[in-house]
DNA sequence: TATTATTATCGTAATATTGCAATATTAAAT
DNA sequence: ATTTAATATTGCAATATTACGATAATAATA
């Protein structure tokens, strides 16, 4: 015991939870906010900006990448991370639907 | 090491992450969805519905309660959990703002 | 006040997450 | 091919989460 029993839940429930998990860390919120403020983004900037060690930032970036939110392309000699627009809008809609479909007339 | 360095992030970043953390488990997504479908909600129904042990359900309910999303009131002999409307709309807006304020013209 | 049904807490084991130092890889420029 | 700068991976320690059996607390009813 200790691991989540994902198999007893629906695909939709698991997927929303998985995305929420990526957002469930202030560093990853901060990273997404910071990237969005830049024209491009160099990971080394993030280390200075966020205040975590380079391997830690790299791992957080990887978590964000896993759910398809980041595109990394080389621009000259620097690796530039960008937010994937389509995926972003997809997730925005998923959260919007979740919050909207809940019936609040419970009691 | 091991614990999150919450102090290096803003209150807003930490709060959004904390709420996301509650949504970051399919059982809690399922619980919220199930409660919303009922007129009221008895925890014992949740145990049968979700498929986790009663203490586990109770703990998940507590996590949801901690961020102010649940109101528990006794209706006759049964404890009825309801979603707190005001808090729900508050969180809905918080996520909406997060997704909307991100600038997608990164690269 | 017992009894019964429901919900919460405690204790504990298994697994996951977070973070960083050390090291490896990658890509550009010399 | 070497060097240099940036990013990724590995390995490991500390902490957090998930889950459940056992037990306690709570509230209605007999």
Describe, in plain words, how this protein is organized in 3D.
The structure is a homodimer of 107-residue chains. By secondary structure, chain A is mainly alpha-helical. Chain A is 59% helix and 11% strand. Chain A is built from 5 helices and 2 strands; from the N terminus they run H-H-H-H-E-E-H. Chain A has helices spanning 11-23, 26-37, 43-50, 54-66, 85-101, and strands at 70-75, 78-83. A two-stranded antiparallel sheet of chain A has the order 1-2. In chain A, strand 1 and strand 2 form a beta hairpin. Chains A and B meet through helix 1, helix 2, strand 1, strand 2 and helix 5 of A and helix 1, helix 2, strand 1, strand 2 and helix 5 of B. Chain B binds a DNA duplex (30 and 30 nucleotides) through helix 4.
Descriptive key words:
mainly alpha; two-stranded antiparallel ribbon; globular; homodimer; 2 strands; 107 residues; DNA-binding
């Amino acid at each position: 015991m200790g691991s989540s029993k994902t198999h007893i839940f629906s695909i939709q429930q698991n997927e929303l939870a998985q995305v929420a998990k990526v957002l469930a860390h202030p560093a990853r919120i901060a990273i997404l906010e910071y990237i969005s403020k830049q024209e491009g983004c160099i990971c080394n900037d993030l280390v200075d900006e966020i205040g975590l060690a380079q391997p830690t930032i790299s791992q957080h970036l990887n978590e964000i990448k896993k759910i398809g939110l980041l595109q990394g392309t080389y621009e000259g000699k620097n690796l530039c991370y960008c937010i994937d627009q389509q995926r972003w809008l997809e997730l925005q809609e998923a959260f919007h639907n979740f919050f909207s479909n809940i019936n609040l007339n419970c009691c």
